[in-house]
Protein 1
Amino acid sequence: MTVEAREKIFVTKPYLPPKEEYLAYVDRIYESGQLTNAGPLVCELERVLADYLGAEHFQYVTNGTIALQLALKALGIEDGEIITTPFSYVATTSSILWERCKPVFVDIEPDNFTIDVSKIETAITPDTRAIMPVHVFGYPCDVDGIQKIADKYGLKVIYDAAHAFGSVYKGKSLVSYGDISTLSFHATKLFHTVEGGACIVKDKDVSAKLDLIKRFGHNGDEHFTLGINGKQSEFHAGMGLANFAHIGEIKAKRKAITELYDSLLGGKLQRPANKNGLEYNYAYYPVLFESEEQLLRVFEKLNSEGVYPRRYFYPSLNKLPYLKEYTPCPVSEEISSRIACLPLFVDLSGEDVEFITKLIKEAL
Ligand SMILES: *Cc1c(COP(=O)(O)O)cnc(C)c1O
């Protein structure tokens, strides 16, 4: 097939449920007449997802970024330093800055790209309030090591678990660790509600506070605290419910694509290390090239044939131009320079995967 005839392949393509299944939820919205403000579909989605994730306190919100900001606010963190990872999507750092806190970057593990626990303690100061690690690509942080340090120094733990939906670690949902874990249900994520996010909260009172501040901090005419609008609509919840009905097949398809990539690449590119006790969710297919030069060479070849992988995550967030100071994170910077995610989505066919891997092997 010529490049023109072939449909472009991007790193991801949003899953769409059968239209009539979504429209059945739209019918229900027209019947109820309620469009937002904790409507019946939002409440139903919260119940269904809380049950699936084994979460006692689950708050559905407008997106994964506001989820991080609400988490900081709900835990009473208004200033000070937050220890975090430089290897993530920019929202992990921007949410800390937007809440007027200071991100303190701790470098990552070279094998699965999560925060290096052995380097956390030296980064703690009297101003440290919390640790905000990321289960990047759905791979678990050293949750026990992080909790031990948090307990020793009286720090809160907020996991940016935007990639962790459906990963199970040591017999528990990966989003059940920490004081709060946040999720993103953006259209490009494994499970989505077009836009959306959630907070999984350990403590009942913190969850009640988060519920209050996500709807302006008031009940009727009684105003309790400063809040914001983090409420989600019935249409988003309807898309979430329609998608959730297919979560089993979504995960199975992604697993099959991952296994096909593995077998066709035959170990030619480095992959994250397997972690004992992890049931992976197949959220991403990251590969490590030998060098940035090799990555760029493969990208040039793929792009010329209409295939667009993404440099996730690049640049390393400690190098963001609007930070006040630069903290070197050599492992994250080195990995960022030569890592990419290959296309992975439900509609990707076996022939597509064969085509992509053939091009990669040629370029290598
Ligand atoms: C997608 C993502 C977010 C932001 O989520 P939105 O729903 O897009 O606001 C935050 N952190 C990570 C690691 C992400 O991948």
Protein 2
Amino acid sequence: MANTIQQILAHLPSVDVLLKEPSIKTLEDQYSRATIKEAVQTVLADIRQAVLTKEREELPTQEELRERIQQKLAIHSFSLRRVINGTGTVIHTNLGRSSLSPRIKEQLEAISFHYSNLEFDLESGQRGSRYSHLVAILKKLTGAEDVLVVNNNAAAVLLVLSTLTQKKEVLVSRGELVEIGGAFRIPDVITSSGGTIVEVGTTNKTHLKDYQQAITEETGAILKVHTSNYRIVGFTESVTIKELAALAQQKQLPLINDLGSGLFIDMRRFGLPHEPTVKEALEQGCDIVTFSGDKLLGGPQAGVIVGKKEYIQQMKQNQLLRALRIDKMTLAALEATFELYLDEAQAIEEVPVLNMLAQTEQDCLNKAERLAELLRPMTTLEVKIEKDSSAVGGGSYPEHLLPTYVVALKGSLNADELQEAMRNADTPIISRIKNDWNYLDVRTIDPQEFTLVIEGISKKFGNKSDV
Ligand SMILES: *Cc1c(COP(=O)(O)O)cnc(C)c1O
């Protein structure tokens, strides 16, 4: 028997009543109250509308209501979400590598949400090139003649090799046949770009004469690869960039250097060993240098190619470039990030990756004390401060750790369960387990994120009824 419209509407539960319903209340484990309330309101409004237009003539069951609310919530919550990085690994590939500088927000927004001169020359009113926008700034920062950017450094290496060494031999030291995470292997990249690999030297020692002897008519380039994520120690020898550059020049071959991270700042100021910057690599005679946008540069995911114009012009003609093309948001973020590097002190302050590396042991202790102090009254967990070490990450400086302090947490749950609970916070908190404690390394947590950490933890392990 059909109900009248008024009868159905009168029996529809109110928002407040529904929110108190136990089956709805349990959703608070996953979602904020505001989000649930919004979903409840929308679902009830939809049902009311359907009743008014006579699309439905019966009251929803409790089960249907819950199901529909849950569906709404699922849409609400994105798959890709912000997290708190408590691991202390600064360039954490699984957590998005480097986070961008807040200073570039305005530029990123202006280019993303409006039209731009992406491929339009404002001076002539003619078609322009998206790759032109980085030329001036990189010339200033590195002295490079020309620049090209693609999706990531793997793509950069692929484009360089497939342009310059197609059907030719590529000389690489046996000590530099690197595999970067995600199955990027230098020998395979050379092969898939249509070249042939010629291994020179041995794993631990490669001499200049090894390169000299390997050069033939078929040689297309000498490739030097930064051994980012490992070190060969002990009885070792490798050839300097300068020596290789002289040889390459004499034989009229391009010297390509895959720098991996691509530094713009001398890392000794962070207590890390010196490694050549992009500028130094070019000055020492590399013809082409490639590096990532989102490793130590602290920009967006990108692969940057800098060097001699004659080679980069050839790469611009390569069909492959279209498939590896960088988008405007990335370009905007990259140009704005490079802009910060014009003033080194500003870059260190405002590029999060550099800022995190620059934090001293004492800075970390101060931060840890603050977080622990805020946390203690809010949680039933045991809270203590420990000395520990953070990693640079992203395959950079694999054996150099930075001294830090962590806030360590322990509760009635075991360490794995506690870690999982923190991962399920509204803003997931990613911790590291050591000796049965969950470590939150403050090096990679911005003080502005402390509120989110406290909210997340107190919601699950709070000792106050109002939190
Ligand atoms: C990281 C790295 C790459 C890959 O760079 P992506 O930007 O991750 O594609 C290539 N070569 C070296 C030496 C690296 O360290």
